[in-house]
Amino acid sequence: MSDFETTAAGGGSATAASATTMSSEPGTQAAQLKKVKKQKVLLMGKSGSGKSSMRSIIFSNYLARDTRRLGATIDIDLSHVKFLGNLTLNLWDCGGQEAFMENYLSQQRAHVFSNVGVLIYVFDIESRDVERDLATYVNIISALVQYSREAKVFVLIHKMDLVHPSTREQVFEERVSIVRRKTAEAVAIVRKQKPEYPASASVSEGSGMIPDIDLDMQLFATSIWDQSLYKAWASIIHDLVPNLGVIETQLASLGVAIDADEILLFERTSFLVVSKWTSPEGETNPWGDRFERMSNILKAWKHTCSKFTGTPRNAEQFSDFEYKMGPNFSMFVTKFTTNTYILVCMPPGEARFNSAKLNVAAARPWFKFLDGPVVAPASAGGTPREGTGSGGGGQLHQQHPQEYGI
Length: 406
Known about the structure:
Blueprint: E1 3-5, E2 19-21, H1 26-32, E3 37-45, H2 51-59, E4 76-83, E5 87-94, H3 98-105, H4 109-113, E6 118-124, H5 130-147, E7 152-158, H6 168-191, E8 216-221, H7 228-238, H8 244-257, E9 262-267, E10 273-278, H9 290-309, E11 320-325, E12 329-335, E13 340-346, H10 350-363, E14 385-388, E15 395-397, E16 403-405
Parallel strand pairs: 3-5, 3-6, 6-7, 7-8
Antiparallel strand pairs: 1-11, 2-16, 4-5, 9-10, 9-13, 11-12, 12-13, 14-15
């Protein structure tokens, strides 16, 4: 039987037994970090395709059922979404009515499609006018290639929950094949050359670069009613996050130090997975969609906390979440930095569990750059210290700026 508990703050004691070296000196780490990054993101698609619904679920903490009361977007709904401390998404939610689309492609063409970092185009799988949808898509891609050739393109084949499960994969693959051919045609319009893209070419979800076309495109099957939405948006955000290499290196060092099977780093509000680390043992986990499942579960848990505490959905709802599955595994989710939560999954054992929680707390100063521009420590002697644990374990602190005591 599992032991489940949610607490306001974690506690426990641990003794120091070993140390693992962190990835870089403070000064070196500061030199590697990039400044605040701004990205223009276009969210486009036919009116009623579900653009505003998915945006509201991811960034405004709507429940799927609540999106039914959202009205149609008029012209362009511009919002600035702060993601972590050093990434701002200038999100342009573009109304999909035909009149607006014609305006984007004519009078506002340069204004809308210049300096774009990411285009997210949403197709409604249940649309009754597929040919017109594809014609509009071709024009959008042509404008994008004309003004923002380096932009990344994410195509979401949406409302897949309306397709019968037995044919869902086949329907998706057929639509992917059509979209890729139409993308080749769109690029050819700008380059004034005949596209050479075989109709029989094999495709797969999120396969990256299109053969012979300099356009970075990924495609996803999505629905607001399951975790597929989190998979798509986590992939969109992943490549935009500044200092991703530093984050991944530090997570790997922390994972090895605390003997974890897996570590996930979530953005605080959306619960999208920013980065992850998996041990060789964790790689044997057969559930390939477990990351987006955890995003969905934790977002639902946050909504439940909001419902029973009466606090706003955007507010911070919990600081610790623990789950101990007997002899199988232990897991905890805890507030990490101002803008993140961290999930640690590890083998069972109370001492190991408490030690990991204390050392995750000790590691926080090394991830402060996630909250904004980093300031290098004045000297090596000014390393941060953590207070005592609640179980009589004495003071836990970093003996050296590069070491975790476990």
